[in-house]
Amino acid sequence: MSLISIRLIRFHNPLLSLLISSTQPKLKTFSSIPLIRVAATLTTKASSSLSAEPKMVKAIRVHELGGPQVLKWEDVEIGEPKEGEVRVRNKAIGLNFIDVYFRKGVYKAPSLPFTPGMEAVGIVTAVGAGLTGRQVGDLVAYAGQPMGSYAEEQILPASKVVPVPSSIDPVIAASVMLKGMTAQFLLRRCFKVERGHTILVHAAAGGVGSLLCQWGNALGATVIGTVSNKEKAAQAKEDGCHHIIIYTEEDFVTSVNEITSGNGVEVVYDSVGKDTFEGSLACLKVRGYMVSFGQSSGSPDPVPLSSLAAKSLFLTRPSLMQYVVTRDELLEAAGELFTTIASGVLKVRVNHTYPLSEAAKAHEDLEARKTSGSVVLIP
Ligand SMILES: NC(=O)c1ccc[n+]([C@@H]2O[C@H](COP(=O)([O-])OP(=O)(O)OC[C@H]3O[C@@H](n4cnc5c(N)ncnc54)[C@H](OP(=O)(O)O)[C@@H]3O)[C@@H](O)[C@H]2O)c1
Known about the structure:
Layout (H helix, E strand, L loop, with lengths): L2 H9 L43 E8 L8 E8 L6 E11 L1 H8 L14 E9 L11 E5 L9 E5 L4 E2 L6 H21 L7 E4 L5 H12 L3 E6 L2 H9 L4 E4 L5 H8 L5 E6 L6 H7 E9 L13 H4 L4 E3 L10 H16 L7 E6 L3 H9 L6 E5 L1
Parallel strand pairs: 8-9, 8-11, 9-10, 11-12, 12-13, 14-15
Antiparallel strand pairs: 1-2, 3-4, 3-6, 3-15, 4-5, 5-7
Helix pairs in contact: 3-4, 3-9, 6-7
């Protein structure tokens, strides 16, 4: 399917035309959402059956760390799921900045070669012996560990997958599992945003940034967003940013100071890192929260404790993985995310799709700041 036709399908999804509400939605419970089970031509045999031929699938592999060119499209062998595991045929794979960190070696992959990717939606094609609760044909999503979603099929622990409600388009779900659960824990748990707060979101038109702005607005906060150009500024405005700063042209600290009449903001969500960290601290009000959750521009320099003392600031460097440790935490985060999408509070922007085989091009564009919203790879 061509890129254009994929885009058209996504943007004609009725979910996307719903308006962003400025009030907190009534959330349905996760268990009340109808799920998808695909009655199809998939194998229904459990993995305990014997298979003579090794099963091969296409996947992106990294044999050496480096630039986007190290992402190679190869045949890899995939086994049968063991006890507690499922095999999933991916329909759509979310691209995340963390994939760039692993490719470059900023974060260390467990081994070389490895298949990158930490987010996907697909159909269960086999279940491990003795597994209950998951069936062949289920549409499931996952985000986080284990790495390896840049593949036509992958094996996953059943405890890491969640069912995708039938109200959510699979491509939307794949684009938003990791980014959306990140927005959920950042706004609802790490620092609890409330009506009347003023929040600063860097890279406001990015995958996570777009969701933070919409959700922050819906929670009743005044949202200040930074972006690198006018096109991204227009998107951030649509996403509910009350004030937009083009930080490549203006000094964002001065602008935040003016917008808040010198008071500063309750919280900064800073995923840019090196280029913004120091300025972000300067934007905070007394007892404000510095939430440093990424480093798209590079790792921030070490912070002396004294830089927090002047305003009694809080500093945290959170990761989604530590906020979805238990199965209950995972189901709660995914459930709140899916219901927030279904109710129209979040308008998920899948602005770019690439064939999975062209993951290198997708990485190149993400790193060059050419993308906005979510990027999805289609196997
Ligand atoms: N801690 C966690 O659990 C967690 C989870 C998910 C994501 N994250 C982090 O959240 C951030 C956003 O992830 P994402 O996947 O949604 O990516 P993204 O925001 O769509 O892309 C990164 C954006 O950062 C901005 N940026 C600023 N300086 C940059 C530079 N030197 N190089 C590249 N980009 C730069 C760009 O926006 P402008 O052009 O507008 O500047 C760019 O579009 C990443 O840092 C990621 O590591 C953290």
